[in-house]
Amino acid sequence: MKRTINNLTVKEWFSEREAATYTGMSVKALQRLRYNGRVTFGVKRDGRSITYRKRDLDVLMEKNFRFYAASPIDANEGRFRT
């Protein structure tokens, strides 16, 4: 299913490959998270295709990814400032 927000089409459900790309993970890593029950998923009517809801992936990323601030680089020295 897709919805339109400000003339942009946003997918609500992703295939396994699309979900891996969206989260920046490999398909195998996503499969491990699903197997361990850390991510919810849906199954298409054919009974074989795995799908992931965008908002569930967003929650997964917020809870499990760590975000770091970039260290400033001194352009004159070409290395990180401490």
Label the structural class. Answer: alpha+beta
Oligomeric state of this protein: single chain
The helicity comes to: 25-40%
Number of strands: 7
Whole-number mean pLDDT:
77
Name the beta content range: 25-35%
Please report the distance between the alpha carbons of the first and last residues.
Answer: 48 Å
What composes the largest sheet?
3 strands, antiparallel
Shape: elongated
The topology string of helices and strands comes to EEEHHEEHEE
Alpha plus pi helix count: 3
Strand order of the largest sheet: 3-5-4
* Low-confidence runs of at least 5 consecutive residues: none
Estimated radius of gyration: 18 Å
Output the keywords.
elongated, two-stranded antiparallel sheet, single chain
Description of the structure:
The protein is an alpha+beta fold. The protein contains three helices and seven strands, in the order E-E-E-H-H-E-E-H-E-E. It has a three-stranded antiparallel β-sheet. A two-stranded antiparallel sheet has the order 1-2. The chain has a two-stranded antiparallel sheet with strand order 6-7. Strand 4 (42-43) and strand 5 form a beta hairpin.
Summarize this structure briefly:
A hairpin with a 4-residue loop joins strand 6 and strand 7.
Question: Could you give the topology of this structure?
Answer:
Layout: E1 2-5, E2 8-11, E3 13-15, H1 16-23, H2 27-35, E4 42-43, E5 50-53, H3 54-64, E6 73-74, E7 79-80
Antiparallel strand pairs: 1-2, 3-5, 4-5, 6-7
